[in-house]
Design goal:
158 residues; mainly alpha; 6 helices; 88% helix; 0% strand; transmembrane helix; transmembrane
Length: 158
């Protein structure tokens, strides 16, 4: 939930937090659809190609994990919306300033390490596989573009 609090702004009252949870609940069907789509792709891969067993199994596992996680998230949100005491405790825990700062620091560190790892992958893969090089390059550039767009959007909002 700390990751979620970095996406949605802080809720100062229980009613604001209730609305935030209702907004989050609207995204759960998208998660469920993504999990179901991953499972469907896995089933198609299993039937079409035998040499893609690993990828099919990976998609099946990811799809099942996303589907189960979205169901659990839905049940947690429903439970919080029904119980005022739990709702208040979760709001205070989620929007605690220390937790927010820890999450922001973790996001920052993960981003820096992701860029460094992408750079190392580009250096090494340049000797062996240009496909891997361009994939890593594309991911690093995508990160920077998303960072700049996110920064621009949040600059306008805040």
């Amino acid at each position: 939930m700390l990751f979620m609090s970095s996406i949605w702004g802080p809720a100062n009252t229980d009613e604001e937090y209730r609305e935030t949870l209702k907004t989050r609940r609207r995204f759960i069907p998208v998660l469920m659809l993504g999990g179901a789509a991953s499972i469907a792709v896995s089933v198609i891969l299993i039937r079409v190609r035998e040499e893609k067993d690993f990828v099919a199994g990976l998609y099946m596992g990811l799809g099942c994990g996303i589907l189960v996680a979205s169901i659990i998230l839905f049940l947690r949100i429903r439970s919080l919306l029904r119980d005022e005491k739990k709702l208040r405790m979760k709001r205070l825990q989620e929007f605690d300033e220390r937790n927010i700062q820890l999450t922001l620091k973790a996001h920052n560190t993960a981003g820096v390490l992701l860029i460094m790892t992408g750079y190392v992958i580009m250096l090494v893969s340049g000797f062996f596989s240009m496909e891997v090089f361009w994939t890593a390059w594309g991911l690093v550039m995508l990160y920077f573009v998303l960072f700049i767009v996110g920064r621009f959007i949040y600059d306008k909002r805040m």
